[in-house]
Amino acid sequence: MTDQRVRGSATVSWGEGRLDLFWVDFDGALIHRPFEAGAWAEAESLGGTLASGPTATAWAPDQLEVFAV
């Protein structure tokens, strides 16, 4: 993360060596950054204008859900 002004975060793992990090940036958008094979991928904006921090759950390999208001 380059900007430290974030609001809420959540991390979930749906498989060995895999992490998915979500946070709300200073503009209110949901941001996603995955970690796999020992390296972080670039962060991507999933858009939106969130009023809360995210929460995430993984229920099977390659299956996750993120919730926020």
Q: What does this protein look like?
A:
- The protein contains no helices and seven strands.
- It has 69 residues and is mainly β.
- Strands 1, 2, 3, 4 and 5 form a five-stranded antiparallel sheet that branches. Strands 6-7 form a two-stranded antiparallel sheet.
Summarize the structure.
The protein has 69 residues and is an all-beta fold. The protein has strands at 7-15, 18-24, 30-36, 39-40, 44-47, 55-60, 63-67.
Rounded to the nearest angstrom, the radius of gyration is 12 Å
Describe the main β-sheet briefly.
5 strands, antiparallel
What are the segments in which pLDDT stays under 50 over at least 5 consecutive residues?
none
Termini distance?
22 Å
The outline comes out as: globular
Helix content: under 10%
Structural class per helix/strand content?
mainly beta
Counting DSSP H or I runs of 4 or more residues, the number of helices is 0
Mean pLDDT: 91
Oligomeric status: single chain
Query: Approximately how much beta-strand content do the residues carry?
Result: over 45%
SS elements, strand count:
7
